[in-house]
Amino acid sequence: QVQLVESGGGLVQAGGSLRLSCAASGLIFSSSIVAWFRQAPGKEREFVAAITWSSGKTYYADSVRGRFTVSRDNAKNTVHLQMISVKPEDTAVYYCGVDRFFSGRYSYAQEYDYWGQGTQVTVSS
Asked: What's the CA gap between 60 and 66, in Å, rounded?
């Protein structure tokens, strides 16, 4: 079992920055990948960024590449999402998820076994 708790969301002005954190408890395997997804009202959950637990290889959605940075702290079992130059279209509930046995399909939400409860990010224009 893995439990995930997101934090760091809030209200930020366009152009500002925000840092989200995802604290994991339970067993994270070396084969795992941890990802951030987001879901805006009336829209499907979409991939944002991911990082492999062992090597730290990162993946990004085109819409956030160059603005968001995903990182991990293995000792603290925590993954961060640093968001800069945020835009109103970044407004969503942000979720972190864990796929314990990463097979390459990092952007597919159905591949992830565990999810956190989400944290709201609101970007004002």
From this structure: 9
Question: Kind of pairing, strands 92-99 and 33-39?
Answer: antiparallel
Structure tokens belonging to residue 30: 């070396």
Quick one: DSSP state of residue 65? B
Place of tokens 């795992």: 32
Give CA–CA dist 48/91, Å, rounded: 12
Cα 99 to Cα 90: distance, rounded to the nearest angstrom: 24
| φ/ψ of residue 53, rounded to 5 | -70, -35
pLDDT, tens digit (0-9, with 9 covering 90-100), for 8-48: 999 999 999 999 999 999 877 888 999 999 999 999 999 99
The backbone torsions φ and ψ at residue 62, rounded to the nearest 5 degrees and listed phi first, read: -60, -35
**pLDDT per position as a tens digit, 51-72:** 999 999 999 999 999 999 999 9
